[in-house]
Amino acid sequence: MPSDYIILSDKFWTGTGAEIGFAAVAGGRITTVGSPAEAEPLIDAGVPVKDFASKAVLPGLWDAHVHLLYTGLALFWVDLGGAELISDIQGRLRERLKTGEDELLVGVGYDDAFLADGRMPGGADLDAVSTDRPIVIFRIDGHSLIHNEAARQYLGIDSSWEGIEVGDDGRPTGRVLARANEAVRNRIFDRTSPGFKREAYKAAAGLATRAGCAALCALEGGELFGDEDLDILQGIQPELGIHTVLYNQYPEVASSRRLGLDRIGGCILADGSIGSRTAAVLEDYADDRGNRGRLYLDNAWLKRFVAEAHEAGMQVAIHAIGERAVRQVLDAYEAALTAAPRPDHRHRVEHIELILEEDIERAARLGVVFSMQPAFEHFWGGPGNLYERRLGDRYKRTNRLGSILRAGVTLAGGSDSNITPLAPLLGIKAAVNHPTEGERLTVDEALKAFTAGAARACFAEGNYGTVEAGKSATFTVLGDHPADVPPTEIADIEVVATIVDGDEVYTIV
Ligand SMILES: [Zn+2]
Ligand SMILES: [Zn+2]
Predict the structure, then answer these.
(1) How confident is the model at residue 2 (pLDDT cuts 50, 70, 90)?
(2) Cα–Cα dist 138/80, whole Å
(3) Which terminus of the chain has a lower count of CB atoms within 10 Å, N or C?
(4) C-alpha 366 to ligand 2 mean position (Å)
(5) What is the CA(124)–ligand 1 centre distance, in A?
(6) Is 213 part of a structural domain of the chain?
(7) pLDDT tens-digit profile of 18-39?
(8) Is cis: bond before 418, omega within 30 of 0?
């Protein structure tokens, strides 16, 4: 097949160790790679050239854990990130009330850990903004929210749900955690029109490719809501300009079958989050004695669900953040694998912010894939930060990337967007600069987690994750190679182009 074009660069990073100077592309695939001299006959024959000169050409960067709809919707919601006072949150919401026509006002990204008011915000703070317009604001981790009275009525929030916080006076505070948080989020999605969801998916895909992300695992749908979002995503997948692998979070094997997927799960929650103090940890929260979070899933249900999906030949993915939840999920995987051994199942655990030493070994032995978000360390790790506040000295044992990789576990890099930005370079920077020295990754290891590791986590390594002849022509082109800039500046490297299956879907002009 004649080449459509060739890519030249002095700084290819192939992910295989092979040193090359060009890659020829035809029909969306890499047909040949080789030294600069080997490119000359093609150039002489008039094949178009994309000469990136000293820009770095990498295999297309991945994000192994994205909530694409949530990410897209958040682009249209009120951004509460960086708010330092409750009045600041209120001000941003009031501003939108003046201009926006949202039936339901949603805000995202506030972080109570950074509010200087000395108290937690509650429903009354939102009632002060409006008594007739429903308002819901999500905490940065998405695992808790606050709503006003109008939203309680509009969304049918029921005070009997598990996770509705009740104050000393016996009345709901307007703060919602755990399962009730999921229920509210699903009701918001339920009231969002399919047309708006399509726009949100497209906006999120555009955000990704601008950040140099060429491929991602999209974790969509969910309990209480169903699998409709996946239908919408499947319908517009070809228009997104990014390679997407869908994960169906609705925990019914039949639902994945209906969608034609041989995988199930994502953020099926075995526990909550550290920020919301709902992750199932082994010792009390340092700032909430007596609380060790909670396991959300009934053990018998989890084992049954995993066994059924496993025996149907599916890959399973489950969210587990605290040590107790990680152990519970590994127990379920181990039981299913003992009853019905299957090589190369690649069952996934998502997040793994805390883990027992023996469970690292166990995951390696079982062949379980760990899908992790190094940017959590960037935002919450290190001395004096959120992890230390919640966990005390145990903050030194969060997100153990280095130990996990060295134990031989496949590590897939992701963002959990929109919990952290959909920006693989930020994840790579965070992994290389992990506050705990022993858990840092080298630039090569971090790049692999965000390329081959992530591709392997969804059985896509035959086509993606490295620059090799025969694979998809999917590349991320960067202003500099991440190893050639100071480690703290990796996230600032300019994304020059994102090429997906041969098409340049993003380029700076
Ligand atoms: Zn999750
Ligand atoms: Zn997630």
Answers:
(1) confident
(2) 9
(3) C
(4) 23
(5) 29
(6) no
(7) 999 999 999 999 999 999 999 9
(8) yes
Query: In terms of residue numbers, what domain contains 104?
Result: 70-190
Instruction: Give the residue ranges of DSSP H helices in 156-276.
Output: 178-190, 194-210, 228-236, 253-258
pLDDT at 174 (0 to 100): 97
Residue 473 lies in a domain: no
Which ligand sits closest to the CA of 65? Answer: 2
CATH number at residue 152: 3.10.310.70
* Rounded distance from Cα 278 to ligand 2 centre (Å): 15
Centroid of ligand 1 to alpha carbon of 266 (angstroms): 7
Q: What is the mean pLDDT of the chain?
A: 96
94 CA distance to ligand 1 centroid (A)? 30
Q: Give domain status of residue 374, yes or no.
A: no
Please state the pTM of the whole predicted model: 0.94
Paired tokens of 342: 């299957």
pLDDT in tens, 267-305: 999 999 999 999 999 999 999 999 999 999 999 999 999
Specify whether the CB–CB gap between 209 and 427 falls below 8 A.
Answer: no
Calculate how far, in angstroms, residue 31's C-alpha sits from the geometric centre of ligand 2. Answer: 36
Tell me if 15 is assigned to some domain: no
Count of structural domains within the chain: 1
Span from the CA of 416 to the centroid of ligand 1 (angstroms): 7
